[in-house]
Amino acid sequence: MNGQRFISTPVPAAPQPCSPWLRLAHDFPVEDSVRLFAQPCLGDHALHYFREGSGSYELRGETVPIRPGMLFFVRPGEGYRFTLDPGVRVRMYNLHFDLRENERSYRPFPVPPEACRNQEKYPETLPPYQQLANRPAYEQCFLRLLDAASRIGVEAELERKSELLKLFAVLHRNLSLSPGRATGEFHRRAVEAAIAELSKHLSGNLRISELASRVGVSRALLCRIFREATGESIQRYFVERKLQAAKSDLLYSRLEIKEIAAKYGFADVPHFTRRFRQITGTTPGQIRKK
């Protein structure tokens, strides 16, 4: 085809924001006299990045240590509180934005808390906090946003949208780099949520893409962190849980084997028996005889 390249983009696990509106970019060297910051309810999104500093940050009922390179993502309707250590130099790069530009996006900062009722929130594919492994990439995006925020015109507006989307990509990429303790905690909660969802669906089937969507992470990330946490693939774990429940029914219920097979989503008795033998080394009939 004369050297042509024809590439169709894959379908995403979940729709992504396409037109964010930057409300505020703030390069913030914190004065020594101010050590406590708190906001019970935000009306828009906020990204609080600590280029320098130490202390503790409270978000979603958790208290997380502040250290250089930590980023906190506060969504509309959420509150935060952070305390900075005395005598420590602190510099923050702060951003406030709406996920999608709309007629209410042009109100000045700060946005009143009640505005959160009309705000679309960024999906949970990004955790509430993470330690950035590639700090320069994030900081360069921020500085370009800071520059674009000072200019007017269509070109500057498009630059702000473009750089915000690049910044989101930096944060998503960070999850696959060198996960720090904060990112590891988010992964742990995602795996726990996935296990809880699987437990609710033992009587049927749940596609991995749907499971990932419910948990709020990408399919690829969920498969990786699930195996890291459990030592098994999602598919094998799900089948094992189904068979554990089926074994209990075989031992303690009066259901026929074909009823148990149907109860746990197996196509027929031969399929059920084959999978049962693969995982347990025995057959449903042998368990029933015990």
Automatic annotation (TrEMBL):
Pfam families: AraC_binding, HTH_18. Keywords: Activator, DNA-binding, Transcription, Transcription regulation. Residues 192-290 form the HTH araC/xylS-type domain. One of its GO terms (molecular function) is DNA-binding transcription factor activity. PANTHER family: HTH-TYPE TRANSCRIPTIONAL ACTIVATOR RHAS-RELATED. This is AraC family transcriptional regulator.
